[in-house]
């Protein structure tokens, strides 16, 4: 609905329609409050149904536009939004309606709580003034000739203060209980909204398998024969093994455990080399007058 200035009013939501209050003017005749509330409830339901139809039509329109584009160009547009199935749309509409209902109920409860609090406060003040007047009357009856207006006023104020202190403890406990009830109600509302919005596609994935964390031998390692021992409790044998069932040739490392090398050395691991003679052969150097080669340096 637009005005002459071009301003467009925001449409009313269902909970705003439910909580709409029509002002009553004095003692003039007006509409029946029950019929007005029934009409507002009907309007709220119609607005909620209209919002659901509009959402479904917009989704269908977007789907048709994507389909037309794909048929014309042979491919989907680059900015294609993820598809929203009908179940997800219905869940969102249901969640919105539930949130509107909860908000309307909360506003109604708050208004009722404020009205009850005001009524209770008036009753407390009335009872406090009655108690103060009784205390004043008792003072007048018992004062006799020592009666003064100041003492009467002090008696009234002291009675009101004592009454207020007694009522304050009760009000504090009532406020705490109301706060706890409101917290529980809000927690229940959040849980219900979460269950409505949750869907199988949004469930967390299952725990991954951990078998792949165990190291496995490569193809080259599986093709090589196992050497030595096959378990952690067995000690490696003195002789090497080429396979688990056959004994290999002795190791070619030198010297063996039972023999020590002599002056001759080995030039290879598979065949025995000729011994190399040390200089001088007899372990002595030739004398100065003897002819011969000098010891190597």
Automatic annotation (TrEMBL):
InterPro entries linked to this entry: DivIVA_domain, DivIVA_fam
GO terms for biological process, alphabetical: cell division
Region annotated Disordered, chain positions: 198-297
Keywords: Cell cycle, Cell division, Coiled coil, Cytoplasm
Compositionally biased tracts (Polar residues): 216-277
Subcellular location(s) of the protein: Cytoplasm
Signal peptide range in chain numbering: none
Pfam families assigned: DivIVA
Main location: cytoplasm
A cellular component annotation (GO) from this entry: cytoplasm
Domain of life of the source: Bacteria
NCBIfam families recorded: DivI1A_domain
Annotated protein name in UniProt: Cell wall synthesis protein Wag31
Lineage: Bacteria, Bacillati, Actinomycetota, Actinomycetes, Micromonosporales
């Amino acid at each position: 609905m637009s005005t002459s200035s071009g301003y467009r009013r925001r449409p009313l939501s269902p909970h705003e329609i439910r909580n709409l209050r029509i002002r009553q003017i004095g003692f003039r005749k007006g509409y029946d409050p029950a019929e007005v509330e029934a009409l507002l409830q009907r309007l709220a339901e119609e607005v909620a149904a209209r919002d659901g139809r509009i959402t479904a039509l917009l989704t269908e329109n977007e789907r048709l536009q994507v389909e037309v584009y794909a048929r014309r160009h042979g491919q989907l547009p680059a900015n294609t939004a993820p598809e929203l199935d009908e179940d997800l749309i219905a869940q969102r509409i249901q969640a919105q309606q539930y949130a509107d209902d909860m908000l309307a109920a909360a506003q109604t409860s708050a208004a009722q709580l404020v009205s009850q609090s005001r009524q209770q406060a008036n009753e407390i003040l009335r009872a406090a003034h009655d108690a103060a007047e009784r205390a004043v009357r008792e003072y007048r009856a018992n004062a006799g000739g020592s009666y003064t207006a100041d003492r009467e006023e002090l008696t009234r104020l002291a009675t009101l203060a004592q009454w207020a202190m007694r009522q304050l403890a009760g009000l504090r406990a009532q406020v705490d209980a109301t706060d706890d009830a409101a917290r529980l109600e809000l927690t229940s509302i959040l849980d219900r909204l979460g269950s409505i919005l949750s869907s199988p596609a949004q469930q967390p994935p299952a725990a991954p398998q951990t078998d792949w964390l165990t190291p496995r031998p490569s193809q080259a390692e599986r093709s090589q024969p196992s050497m030595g021992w096959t378990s952690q409790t067995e000690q490696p044998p003195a002789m090497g093994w080429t396979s688990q069932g056959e004994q290999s040739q002795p190791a070619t490392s030198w010297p063996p455990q039972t023999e020590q090398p002599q002056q001759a050395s080995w030039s290879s691991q598979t065949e025995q080399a000729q011994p190399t003679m040390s200089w001088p052969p007899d372990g002595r150097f030739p004398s100065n007058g003897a002819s011969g080669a000098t010891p190597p340096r």
